[in-house]
Amino acid sequence: MGKKKRGHPDVEEILSRPWCYYCERDFEDLKLLISHQKAKHFKCDRCGRRLNTAGGLSVHLNQVHKETLSQVENALPNRQGLEVEIFGMEGIPQEVLEQHRNRIIQNFYQAQEDRRIATGNPPPGQSKNPRKKIKIETAEELLKRFAEYRAQRKAVLASGGSMDGVVQTGTAFPQQTFNQPGFPGQQPHGQAAYGFSADSLPARPSSGLVGAPGLPQRPTQAGFWGSSAQATASGDEIDQLIRMAEAGVKPQKRPEEGEEAGDGKGKKDKDKKGRMVYDDAEFSPEEKMAALPRYAYIPPVGT
Amino acid sequence: MAPATQYELSPPPGDAVSSIAFAPDSGTKLLVSSWDNKVYHYDITNGPEASSLVNTYEHRAPVLDVCFGADDNEAFTAGMDWTVNRLNLETGELTPLSKHTAPVRRVVYSKSHGILVSASWDSTLNLHNLNDPSSTPITIALPGKPQALAGSPSKIVVAMTGRIINIYDVDSIAELFRTGGTELKPWQQRESSLRYLTRSVSCMPNDAGYATSSIEGRVAVEWFEDTAESQARKYAFKCHRQAAPDGDGDIVYPVNALAFHSVHGTFASGGGDGTVALWDAEAKRRLKQYQKFPNNVAALAFSNDGKYLAVGVCPGFETGQNDYSGAGQTSVFIRELGENEAKGKGTK
């Protein structure tokens, strides 16, 4: 990869940039990062005071405004917690650091490849989908993958779903395409309120390949980059979250709760699991209350 | 920045809150209707220290809704006793305006035309022409039982069971009074975007559209304009849910109340989970989620100047409950909003 020119920094340079644990944004230097955190994540919304840490803000809110801080503002859904004490680059858990590193590396090479495709001059000896060739599976792996595929196929058929998506992607881990979390609040919907009937799979959310729509979905690059599959997968999820954030869409809750735009099957399962506190389709809580002796009104005769 | 505060009104209503309304002119005067047969009149000018209760108005039965009329001294109430009342806040005089054949769920007043619309569980609307006090109200049959009612400058939105939403044109109601007719066709009839029973409706202050919420932790935003572009803009999202303590799925709460901010056009939603969230309808963003209130949020109202948010908190009615009381557990919180607290982020 001897291509570092035209304003594309090399991977080491990108990796050395300080970045924000709460929103995954990276910055020129640590000072900028810290002022970003103070302004975006540790600012008191009651009086505008900028604190140094989430803990500091929590104490401030408690003492000055008698309120409790429940989450870090403007943070990615899985980073809103107050348990981790972050200041600049300090305090980021090891696995998150690794995840971030993997994501950066992955995005870097992805961008590099996208540029190559966009410019139309692939480097010699590389076909359109190099990963396929590079990935070498042992017999066990192959068998395992086949078993997984069959199980998945069964599941999809059982739920009445079409196999289209799976067949089309034709990659090693097609479910990755589907399991990317969708988010409520961004998908305009038509008259059919939710469109999650199992036999009409909704359109897939666009994957990470922004610049190259024609490119087949890549298999996981676990083997390729020497990272664990787990880390890569969660890296994808974070990517997705960041893209959502960039697109100006804020997920309402944690990603697991927001299946709306995603997989029809998953959505249905989720709905079954949601337990409604009140679920009468005909009578409102007020009507039920009205029927209680405590609130009953007996109209006087003759009025 | 102004020190924003939140405090509880004292004394609180004696039972569950059904509705909260701020006065059209004064930004500090509000009415709270309660299941304890009373309407409470508070004035919050003196802040948290002073007692803010000005008066209470006793009704025959639980009061299900209250709204202000032409000025700060006129209000209308809807009650379990099937009656729509005019309430004179100065004298406390209660004048029945019309009678339904079932409890009256909601009342809404249209300032521009001097019209009062009441919606009752007898599946009718009563239209009152307040410009002509001697006229008898016109009763309009609805295709379903109304659950929520809201007015914008030009429209009245009625959400019913069976996911039916009727939108009436206020001008055509005025026309009806003029011609003396008794038939009113909805300007539009729509199917609710939400799959479950509608809980609340609120109209955008700019008259462009409305938001609805359902018992199943969801809010939909739609626009009035009947063009493909406008209709394509509508969306719905989940909210007011909590991960179940046993980790198995979510607990889904009803979204009991919606209120648009008159200045910034953002809106607040209040749910059974005891939280209030602020949303930017245009940017499809959540602006804020307030810290949990001690109980179910039953009613919300912004003051007309947008400086205050009143939150009615009382126990929520849950499926299968066969005794309920909000006595002793009901409170009304006033939140003084920071200058930009309810402002959409996109406009910053």
UniProtKB/TrEMBL annotation, chain A:
Residues 113-133, 244-281 are annotated as: Disordered. Residues 13-72 form the BED-type domain. Keywords: Metal-binding, Nucleus, Zinc, Zinc-finger. Gene3D superfamilies: Classic Zinc Finger (3.30.160.60). SUPFAM superfamilies: beta-beta-alpha zinc fingers. It is found in: Nucleus. Residues 42-65 form the C2H2-type domain. InterPro entries: Znf_BED, Znf_C2H2_sf, Znf_C2H2_type. The keyword Repressor does not apply. One of its GO terms (cellular component) is nucleus. SMART domains: ZnF_C2H2. It comes from the Eukaryota. Coiled coil: none annotated. Its main location: nucleus. Residues 262-278 have a biased composition (Basic and acidic residues). GO terms for molecular function: DNA binding; zinc ion binding. This is C2H2-type domain-containing protein.
TrEMBL record, chain B:
Pfam families: WD40. WD repeats lie at residues 255-289. Keywords: Repeat, WD repeat. SMART domains: WD40 (SM00320). PROSITE patterns: WD_REPEATS_2 (PS50082). This is Anaphase-promoting complex subunit 4 WD40 domain-containing protein. It comes from Hypocrea virens (strain Gv29-8 / FGSC 10586) (Gliocladium virens).
